[in-house]
Amino acid sequence: MNFAVPRFLKQIHWPLVILTVLFAVLGIFEIYSASFREGGSYASKQLCWLFVGLLVFFATMWLGYRSFLDLGYLFYGLTIGMLVWVLFFGESVSGAQRWIFLGPFALQPSEFAKVATLLTLANFLAARSPVEKQKRTFLMASVLVGLPTLLVLKQPDLGSALVFLPLFLAMMFLWGIRFRYLILLFLMGLSSLPLLWHILKPYQQKRILVFFNPQIDPIGASYTAIQSKIAVGSGGLFGKGWLGGTQTQLDFVPEHHTDFIFSVVAEEFGFLGAFFLVILFLLLISYIFQIMQQTTDFRARLLAVGIASAIAFQVFVNIGMTIGLAPITGIPLPFISYGGSSLIANFFILGLLASVYKERSIF
What global pTM score does this model have? Predict the structure, then answer.
């Protein structure tokens, strides 16, 4: 007897859903492994955020990406307001003023500012033709991205601030910006490096110096980078098994349940496990581009390429800083690192993509 599959189930991009949940579940297991000696509360909290994230994902898909794009400017204004609020009234943790505490919950506005900027920039660029007034569009788009970037950098949160750059470049490229403007942006970035260096906090400057020479302060600023590489290398080919990592279990690697969660994965599951995780992230990026190619809505295409670039950049930098190929900037590994704001924001943007797939106009 044949049963007809309900139409709404056919509209769901199930590989995207399964892969996303797989990432989040793996993250919970690794967060537990990294923190079970402290009671495992981080893992239980992350599990709660996973259920909230799934609700956000399916609600976003059901409401449709167009409704969120239409509210993009309002969302942008709200997140800018939250970023300003954080600077004056936010809670400071480990020297960074990034959170708004709502009772037992800690909200990190910078995570949602990335989403709001994606929505706003997609709206803004789609409403303008790339064949005329490119200079004005480029300048106005730069302001839209530059404002949240500077506010996040002021917290200070260099890692989150850097994420705005690749999504801006990718969306401008797809829109059709002339290369001379990208070259101009590159030259402006180079010329502003001395100013940016003086804006950075001393510990951020030291992290960059450590990247070029990890031995300059082996028991200070270089400690995390060195211990992370030891943890990754000690995993060997097959790893030490779940809950079996020594570098991470004995707290040699700081922040191993957040920014350095990849070192836990590499130590416990070895090179093969870490490589498999990277392949899964590449598969996720390929799904995003497949969805982008299946729609003729230019706003959706801009949104998709911005999401792909932001996720790819975060994965590259997080893994890179774990193995010494990038300076330590505090960027979490999407879906894997502990953090409710990051997890929900990531589920939200993938919910937008699932909605694009559901409402695609090419079959």
Answer: 0.91
